[in-house]
Design a protein that fits this description.
2 helices, 3 strands, globular, 3-stranded antiparallel β-sheet, alpha+beta, about 25% strand
Length: about 70
């Protein structure tokens, strides 16, 4: 079974420890729902962007957690 995980980064791509501890998700939808619920807390805790992985394959990213930047893209 695939594992869906998030990588948490600063704006320059450096991996950081998230302020909200994630779990390992069994579906992409579960992973995306979780990030939708906690993104503000993550951003407040120093995470600027995230990447979604299925096992070791990057699905997408980087995705900004800053609403003003996301709105301009």
């Amino acid at each position: 079974m695939a594992a869906w995980t998030w990588r948490f980064e600063t704006s320059d791509g450096t991996e950081v420890e998230p302020s909200v501890q994630p779990e390992e998700f069994t579906t992409q939808g579960d992973a995306e729902s979780w990030i939708g619920e906690v993104w503000k807390d993550l951003a407040d805790g120093g995470t600027d962007q995230v990447r979604l992985f299925e096992d070791s394959t990057e699905i997408y990213g980087p995705m900004s957690l800053h609403a003003e930047e996301a709105a301009q893209e």
